[in-house]
Design goal:
By secondary structure, the chain is an alpha/beta fold. The protein contains six helices and nine strands, in the order ααβαβαββαβββαββ. The strands form two sheets. A seven-stranded mixed β-sheet has the order 3-2-1-4-5-9-8, sandwiched between helices. Strands 6-7 form a two-stranded antiparallel ribbon. One of its GO terms (biological process) is methylation.
């Protein structure tokens, strides 16, 4: 089961520089993404982990909204790019399948299009990990492509890669988050924005009771 971690790490190491250049200004043109991140920031206090942070663009945006944000990513290449691009912020190598963080340490967890690379049968375990590291009253934000499909990606960002990405049913993800102990606050499904998006996009914000 760790094979997917190795393949994901290797692929994102390979594309890290190109990925950062391509998506660097993406938030500036996506009002829906900014709105959801702003809502999460309004709900959240305390330290926030951006899990699967890539080159750090979401981490940096969260920091610009006043949050004490840091990034965690499976790919050392992505972490290197994030540290170079966002020198005032902290970035660490780590996996959402085994977060090396104390219980109840965080006010917020963001997984922005990062659970899509985790096999769906492992999602309950991942969400339980997010619940563990959040303090009571802390918030979780997930973003993902809506659907129910496994995709094998062999080319991306100008490189040959070996990535599996899952489009996920929002109702199933919501049910699993509730099963992990969270209370749902917001679920949003929006239409795709051409030319880059092909399917609906989903966002989910949930709260750890307390």
């Amino acid at each position: 089961m760790t094979d997917f971690l190795d393949a994901t790490r290797t692929s994102y190491d390979k594309v890290a520089v190109s990925y950062e250049e391509l998506l660097r200004d993406h938030l500036a043109t996506n009002a829906a993404d900014r709105a959801v991140l702003g809502m999460f920031a309004e709900y959240t206090t305390g330290q926030v982990a951006d899990v699967g942070c890539g080159p750090g663009r979401i981490t940096a945006h969260l920091a610009s909204l006043g949050l004490d944000a840091f990034g965690v990513d499976l790919s050392p290449g992505m972490v290197e790019v994030a540290r170079e691009r966002h020198r005032g912020l902290r970035f660490e190598v780590g996996s959402m399948t085994g977060l090396d963080l104390p219980d109840g340490a965080l006010g917020g967890v963001v997984a922005w299009y990062s659970v899509i690379h985790v096999p769906p049968e492992l999602h309950p375990e991942v969400f339980a990990g997010f619940f563990r590291v959040l303090a009571p009253g802390g918030h979780l934000l997930l973003a993902f492509q809506a659907g129910d499909e496994r995709r094998h990606i062999t080319e991306g960002y100008g490189h040959q890669v070996d990535l599996v990405a899952y489009r996920l049913p929002p109702e199933r993800i919501a049910a699993q988050v509730v099963d992990a102990g969270f209370e749902l606050r917001t679920t949003v499904v929006r239409a795709p924005e051409p030319p880059n998006e092909k399917v609906q996009q989903a966002y989910l914000i949930a709260r750890k009771p307390g």
